Amino acid sequence: MAQPLAREVAEEVAKLNGVCVRPVALRRLDIVTGKEEIIDAPCGATLESKCPSCAKRNRQLRMAQCREGWHLAEEPVISPDAATEEQRWLIEFRADMQARRDAAAKHGEDPSDWDAVLVGLDEEINIAGMRGHVCGRTAPKRVRSTRRRQDAPDLPKRKMTNTTLGRTFESADGKVYRPSLFVTLTLPSYGRVRDGVPVDPETYDYGRAARDALHFSKLVDRFVQNLRRVAGYDVQYFASVEPQKRLAPHLHMAIRGTLPRAEVKQIAAATYHQVWWPPCDQVRFEGEHLPIWQDGVGYVDPDTGEVLPTWDQALDELDQDDTAEPLHVIRFGDQVDVKGVAAGTPDADQCIRYLSKYLTKSLGENLNGRAQREHAARFVEALRYEPCSPTCPNWLRYGVQPKGAKAGMAPGRCRSKAHKPEHLGYAGRRVLVSRKWSNKTLAEHKQDRRTWVLEALGQADAPTDPHRYVWSQVKPGDPDLAPIGVRLLRSVAERQRWRAHLRELEVRANGQDLSATGEEAA
Hints:
alpha+beta, three-stranded antiparallel sheet, 13% strand
């Protein structure tokens, strides 16, 4: 039994060689030649617990994306491609169907069939390579007063300029410097902690910590808005959300351009987000005493049979109450770290590594010791009945029907990742990248890396017709699908061949450099 299992050693070798250990088998049919083959595609996991090889590649890809956009010296140019003939035809056809739908509604007919046709056409429009919705926002947006809270300081506002580049500074010798910022933002204290664990769990404010984690992404959005207003230009950023030792999320942000440290700290202190949701501090239904679903009606009170207010009705009641207060107000804590970083320095590389340090780990993965695991368990329990979104089933606990309510909902059984222990209340994206960061999409960054490898290996990277191949997923048990062990071995052999070739090319390049150096010395 002390002998290692051959299969486990094969997986270990695959990880050491950067091979995906959970490949997705796809069947590819070439409609030109008629050739059919099975190809192993990487799973694309972002967490080491899922697939270390794919997680490492994704982390390196994000590091490359951060490095290319942080100290960009030229204004990114983003111009949409011209519409194709097929795209224009789809829009014309969509206009014809819209006219027929409106005519049916005008004559008193049921337009539901036409609405289903329009939904399908909108999906086809996006598949054809067009972004957004052709009709724009179809539902009215609730608007509240934008007047700042009295307990929040006012911020200076500069006139906006049409640029994404920060200021440059010229030294006495004529050298131009383009510094940028590395900012770390944290949430406030919920009680004294020692080594990431509350000193007194009874007085630690788990409820506030849970709500702050649920709405942290909105607070980051507000910070970016305020940052751009104060800076006076379209500030670009690359940020990552990571857990502190006390399990609260915090933000590391690389910002293109520079501002005075005092102004950044002032912006953080003045940034807040108000959550205007129905009150959820008083429990109305719990245990076995829960609302009952009735078809065509919705959820009703099990005692009185009264229909619970819908989400929109609850918000309407909140809008009509002039004395209403927001359910929650989230702010940043006092700890704000602002660091200036110059391009091409060791500090810049260190900050990039720090930004991506925890990207391959879940928020609740690094729990050290029994005390911290118990702290995490209490935090997850505080999240259990906290509404995470308008569609969260937990609203039934407080007498409100969730948005889009359906049968089978029950408080404490929300499937959102915000309630899962590995996410600790934060359901947003772990990497936040502004639209004009590097003037490339993540797919284009991946293609750049692929092109470099193929050129080094001496292989052509000619673009292929996307309509040439028909792809389908291979089901388990397919007779043409080799066992997973065989597929891993094949991938390891191919990766070793590539690395041997790259090492050979590196030796040749070094030999040429040494020869050139010798000729210059002679």
